[in-house]
Amino acid sequence: MGEAALRAKHERLAERLRGLGTVVVGFSGGADSALLAYVAASTLTAAHAPAVTAVSPSLAPEELADCAALASEWGLDWRTVETDELADPSYVANDPLRCARCKTALMDALEGLVPAATVVLGVNVDDLGDHRPGQHAAAARGAVFPLVDAGLTKDDVRGLSHHLGLRTWDKPAAACLASRIPHGTPVTVGRLRSVAVAESALRRLGFRSLRVRHYGETARLEVPIEDLAGVLAQREAVVRDVRAAGFRYVTLDLEGLRSGNLNAGATTAQ
């Protein structure tokens, strides 16, 4: 997309935020929520657009640290709230509506945090076509998706972020750690920790985009196709580090990284 078109979408986004007045931005540190937090603070001032990160065992430690770093770099009014999804038996059961329970817990934490503020989340147009029950749950509670209202796609988010000089423009997607656990397998602190430790170790080996899918004693590694050879080249280190995270078997998915692939066969609740 050309620079003029990006500027036009930037202005539509800013205008949508101005219309809301005061917002609370759900801030995970990913490319979408980062752009939203930055533009909201730039448009409304940081005081009228606090960026709030929900802290729970499903948030990777690196993501929490990056939220803090981004807030410092950009002068955001950054806050954290603790959510306790694991206290909800329905969330722990990990059916295809797990994300809806997570977003309900998020909305419980964000609503009322700032008087008369609207909760805004970093959902883009392309997200609307996936199985994302969390979006429906958040919208039902009054959350607004300004990126969607401004017509921004995933590519637009990255393009505009690059145009604005945000280092998050090429940040790999990083869904919550619970998304690594197949539906029907209970979400536990131990499983989340194993995934977090394994993924952290693989990032230290140089892999930026990856998923460690949790199948009991087996870890299924997903990396982009172009990184498959790199995993094999560091096979001994990869096996050592993933086993140290609590897995017995280490497998490599030859289909490569597919964000959201555990949603295959899932249907959105009506």
Would you tell me the structural class of the helices and strands? Answer: alpha/beta
Principal-axis shape equals: globular
Q: Summarize the biggest pleated sheet.
A: 4 strands, parallel
Which H/E pattern describes the elements? HEHEHEHHEHHHHEEHHE
* Main sheet: strand order: 3-2-1-4
| Number of strand segments | 7
Give structural notes.
The strands form two sheets. This protein has a four-stranded parallel β-sheet, sandwiched between helices. A three-stranded mixed β-sheet has the order 5-6-7, with helices on one face. The model is unreliable at 265-270 (pLDDT under 50). Helix 9 runs antiparallel to helix 11 (235-244). By secondary structure, the chain is of the alpha/beta class. Helices cover 44% and strands 11% of the residues. Helix 2 links the parallel strand 1 and strand 2. It is globular, with a radius of gyration of 19 Å.
